[in-house]
Design brief:
By secondary structure, the chain is an all-beta fold. Helix content is 2%, strand content 45%. It contains 1 helix and 12 strands, in the order αββββββββββββ. The longest helix is centred in the first third of the chain and has 4 residues.
Amino acid sequence: MANRSKFLQNHNIAGGITPLDLNGAAENADYISLKNYEGVVICLYTGVGTGGDDIVMTLQQATDVSDSGAKNLLFTDIYQKNATAGGTDLSAISLWTHTVQTAATNYTNAAMAENASLICIEIKASQLDTANNFDCLRLEVDNPGNAMIGCAFYILYGPKVATDLSLDAITD
């Protein structure tokens, strides 16, 4: 990796799910390709919803950004910031809560619907089934059952080559 001093010279930010009401159908974020990156931080940002209507987050890997050979991806580490009960102010939460789960293909937080939340999952490209040419992934978010505003985005890191910021993350 080239030594570049600015954040956006070392990271790419890609949209996954535009801000919307997550109620209705499940939302599948766009696929991103890790072919040119060492890893990605997947972020889901939600507003307050209805108690008990907690979202399930699932990660899928594929051999290209058009969903070829898609299968679930196991992960263990989740980082989150949740506002206090019924709260919407994440600016008051300075530290991440780190949750380690037994390897699973999905995650839910039983307090997510009651509070504004920022949940992040970091995935290294090496965690994908690279032996079978899997280098793309996406976040899937299920229907919470009631109104809940949310969005998702990806922060890709570790570009494998020095570039002029032209490494594409949304094509394979």
